């Protein structure tokens, strides 16, 4: 539309015809589907599941409930629906309810039209201003959502409480001709949910005795976590019945999709990217940790494991490497397995533990998840040590390493090793370099060093070696002497724990 239009008469002359917001969303979605444009750009892993369901709901002109565990992009999807709105729409200038000049609903807009006629002032509202979001909390009131009588307005305008003009409208009426999102709907008190019945079904509202027939035009999007249905509250059945489409979201189904999301969302400074190389295996490990957490007996599956875990873990991993080179006055580095000590805080704050996990402790559980991820991905690069154990007549590629440690050798890996010390310590382990050259000969030299450290940690997870936490790092030694020796007091705080 032409934003130079400023009066009702000019708007009528332009040929403008009112549309409901659901018609607007539907029309624009049809155009974008036909042109091949992706409305939900940057939402990965939902291309064949969630997004088609959303598009079908919009085409059907439905209100939507996005149901899924935390960190499944529910709110982000709702916010992106504004891309399906027209860039600008005309409104009666100054209207509190964004009244359409050709279809006013508020007393204010009707009075303006009665006073000015075709000279009534018209303003233009951008689509970004047509989005309203409210987090459902137990203290949300009907006044917040629907409205209430404003005694100050009544006094200042010298109006009786029976006059419609004393009403202060809540968020939903003010979202007329827009998208209104209620996040975590089950947290809304049942009596407040009841107040939404008429808004969704009959389009009228009641405020302290006023019965107003306001044909509100709102696209409702709700989000809910299934955990809420048992732990804090529930969506009452009559309200669920009035929400046309319930769409179930999910976590990334593959590591590749998880990596896309993490790399897109992680905030890594350009100077960090230029100085620190993050191998694909390190990125895979971070995603695998989330997969392990979702399957862990210690983590509450009803709570879920948010994608924010991997995003924060990636940022911490890069920062751990950056801190190391700053302390060593080095220019460049690559991430190490020992840098994964830095991601533990990103895990402990983002997993909800069941009772057994709470007994173990969040730090121990987090370290265990790292160890399990290492064990899982190791067999993608090297032979499975468990399978080799069963083949008695086959040479064991890990035996030279195990034998070297069996001769009372041990190594101490400090978290802040310089590049030179890091390489020297790895090269000192007999058989470790040969293992990498045999199975990953084409890898770059920095990646080979990373694989050497990776193999060392993996052999602990396969119970071929043992490791013990140091104040600033980790000590590796043979398994037998570790079993015969007395355990250290703080072994339980190691990174990650054995097996």
Radius of gyration: 30 Å
Question: What's the arrangement of strands in the largest beta sheet?
Answer: 4-7-10-1-11
What fraction, in percent, of the residue positions are helical? 40-55%
State the domain count. Answer: 2
Instruction: Find the structural class using helix and strand composition.
Output: alpha/beta
Shape: elongated
What low-confidence regions span 5 or more consecutive residues with pLDDT below 50? 486-499
Distance between the termini: 65 Å
Q: Mean pLDDT, nearest integer?
A: 89
Q: How many strands?
A: 16
* SS summary, helix count: 25
Largest sheet: 5 strands, parallel
What percentage of amino acids are in beta strands? 5-15%
Main features:
499 residues, 2 domains, 5-stranded parallel beta sheet, 25 helices
Topology of helices and strands:
Elements: H1 8-13, H2 21-35, H3 50-59, E1 64-67, H4 74-80, E2 88-92, H5 107-116, E3 122-126, E4 131-135, H6 142-145, E5 147-149, H7 151-157, E6 167-169, H8 171-174, E7 178-183, H9 190-194, H10 196-201, E8 205-207, E9 210-212, E10 218-224, H11 228-231, H12 237-242, E11 245-248, H13 255-265, H14 270-275, E12 276-277, H15 280-295, H16 307-328, E13 333-334, H17 344-348, H18 355-360, H19 362-378, H20 385-390, H21 399-406, E14 411-414, H22 419-427, H23 432-439, H24 445-461, E15 465-470, E16 473-478, H25 479-484
Parallel strand pairs: 1-10, 1-11, 4-7, 7-10, 12-13
Antiparallel strand pairs: 2-3, 5-6, 8-9, 14-16, 15-16
Helix pairs in contact: 13-15, 13-16, 15-16, 15-19, 19-24, 23-24
């Amino acid at each position: 539309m032409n934003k130079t239009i400023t009066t009702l008469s000019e708007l009528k002359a332009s040929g403008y015809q009112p549309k409901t917001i659901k018609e607007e969303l539907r029309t624009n979605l049809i155009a974008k589907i036909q042109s091949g444009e992706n409305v939900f750009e940057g939402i990965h892993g939902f291309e064949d599941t969630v997004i088609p369901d959303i598009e079908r709901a919009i085409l059907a002109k439905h209100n939507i409930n996005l149901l899924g565990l935390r960190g499944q992009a529910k709110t982000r999807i709702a916010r992106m629906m504004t891309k399906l709105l027209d860039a600008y729409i005309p409104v009666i200038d100054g209207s509190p309810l964004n009244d359409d000049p050709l279809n006013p609903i508020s007393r204010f807009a009707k009075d303006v039209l009665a006073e000015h006629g075709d000279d009534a002032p018209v303003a233009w509202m951008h689509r970004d201003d047509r989005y309203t979001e409210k987090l459902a909390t137990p203290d949300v009131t009907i006044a917040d959502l629907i409205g209430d009588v404003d005694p100050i307005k009544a006094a200042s305008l010298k109006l009786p409480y029976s006059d419609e003009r004393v009403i202060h409208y809540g968020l939903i009426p003010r979202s007329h001709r827009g998208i209104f999102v209620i996040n975590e709907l089950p947290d809304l008190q049942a009596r407040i949910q009841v107040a939404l019945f008429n808004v969704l079904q009959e389009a009228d509202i009641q405020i302290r005795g006023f019965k107003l027939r306001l044909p509100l035009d709102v696209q409702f999007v709700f989000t809910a976590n299934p955990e809420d249905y048992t732990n804090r509250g529930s969506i009452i059945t009559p309200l669920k019945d009035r929400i046309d489409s319930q769409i179930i979201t999910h976590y990334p189904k593959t590591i590749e999709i998880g990596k896309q999301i993490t790399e897109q969302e992680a905030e890594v400074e350009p100077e960090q990217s230029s100085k620190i190389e993050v191998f694909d295996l390190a990125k895979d490990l971070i995603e695998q940790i989330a997969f392990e957490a979702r399957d862990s007996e210690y983590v509450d599956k009803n709570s879920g494991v948010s994608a924010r875990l991997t995003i924060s873990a990636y940022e911490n991993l890069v920062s751990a490497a950056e801190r190391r080179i700053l302390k060593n006055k080095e220019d460049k580095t690559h991430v190490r397995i020992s840098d994964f000590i830095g991601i533990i805080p990103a895990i402990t704050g983002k997993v909800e533990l069941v009772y057994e996990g709470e007994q173990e402790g969040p730090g121990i559980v987090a370290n265990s998840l790292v160890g399990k991820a290492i064990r899982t991905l190791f067999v993608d690069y090297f032979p499975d040590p468990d399978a080799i154990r069963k083949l008695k007549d086959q040479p064991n590629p890990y035996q030279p390493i195990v034998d070297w440690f069996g001769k009372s050798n041990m190594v101490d890996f400090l978290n802040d090793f310089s590049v030179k010390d890091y390489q020297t310590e790895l090269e000192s382990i007999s058989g470790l370099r040969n293992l990498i050259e045999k199975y990953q000969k084409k890898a770059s030299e920095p990646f080979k060093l990373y694989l050497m450290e990776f193999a060392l940690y993996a052999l602990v997870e396969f119970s071929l070696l043992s490791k013990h936490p140091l104040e600033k790092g980790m000590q590796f030694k043979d398994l037998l002497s570790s079993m015969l020796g007395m355990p250290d007091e703080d072994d339980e705080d190691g990174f990650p724990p054995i097996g």
